[in-house]
Design goal:
6-stranded mixed beta sheet; Gyrase A, domain 2; alpha+beta; Alpha-Beta Plaits
Length: 268
């Protein structure tokens, strides 16, 4: 089986990454070790390559109505440039996937889905596509880095064209830049720490990766999927395939907070 690779594969091997097969991708499970990487993120900052995630754009006059029906949260209540953590469910209430919804405007949404579910999520979304809506898989057009930890903002800010102190939690800057490269930046993450996720073109990811390490010095280190899992578990964040699945409802998973029973009809 030929595994997919992110644009940072060669750089990560040079950083002593131990690679594994994750959802059809050759990804780093650890660099210096899971425990030390976990502590690094909690005490300073860590940099994650999560370019394997899927990105799906929904646009058109009915985009908001379409997303509203697909997910359990009330995206109509979200403001422009706000990010919503939510879930897609099947007809019986089981979880198709958990995801982030980036609301540009009521006619444009970016859905960021789990790598293992990207293909089936795209098919599910297209099955429930409304007229006058366009669904486009943008996964190959993005690389995605996550810088997480108490020192993340101090490291990222000198490389960023915008004032990050003004970016609220679960909001995003659609047209920012990092290390001179165009980027979407959101104040989001999967660790329970302060941090940011940076979306950019794959061809500039290596440059941004290197510049973040140059800027952060001893305060930043590469982090693999192993510590990503321990960090999210410590922060009580769910993982699809573990706490979530097609036979587990959001209520059974303890995620009732992310299900709005008062909004218009939704699947599940």
């Amino acid at each position: 089986m030929n595994l997919k690779r992110t644009p940072l594969h060669a750089l990560q091997l040079a950083q002593n990454a131990k690679m594994v097969d994750f959802a059809g991708w050759e990804m780093p499970i650890e660099f210096a070790g899971i425990i030390s990487e976990h502590k690094q993120v909690r005490s300073a900052a860590g940099l994650f390559d999560v370019s394997h995630m899927g990105e799906i754009l929904i646009s058109g006059p009915q985009a908001e109505n379409m997303v509203q029906r697909l997910v359990t949260s009330d995206v109509k209540a979200a403001k422009n440039l706000q990010v919503t953590y939510t879930l897609m469910c099947n007809e019986s209430g089981g979880v198709v996937d958990d995801l982030l919804v980036y609301k540009y405007t009521p006619t444009k949404f970016l859905l960021v889905v789990n790598a293992a579910n990207a293909a089936k999520d795209l098919e599910w979304i297209k099955q429930h596509q409304l007229p006058d809506c366009e669904v486009v898989d943008l996964s190959e057009q993005y690389a995605l880095l996550a810088i997480q930890g108490p020192k993340a903002e101090a490291i990222l800010q000198p490389l960023c064209s915008d004032d990050l102190s003004r970016l609220k939690l679960f909001h995003f800057l659609p047209e920012s830049s990092v290390a001179g490269e165009p980027a979407l930046i959101s104040r989001t993450g999967y660790t329970g720490e302060h941090g940011f996720e940076i979306y950019m073109a794959p061809q500039v990811a290596a440059h941004v990766w290197q510049e973040l390490f140059r800027q952060g010095g001893a305060d930043i280190a590469p982090i693999g999927l192993g510590a990503r899992d321990t960090l999210r578990f410590e922060a009580k964040l769910p993982l699809y395939g573990q706490e979530l699945g097609p036979d587990i409802t959001p209520l059974e998973a303890g995620l009732a907070w992310f299900v709005n029973m008062d909004k218009s009809d939704f699947i599940g």
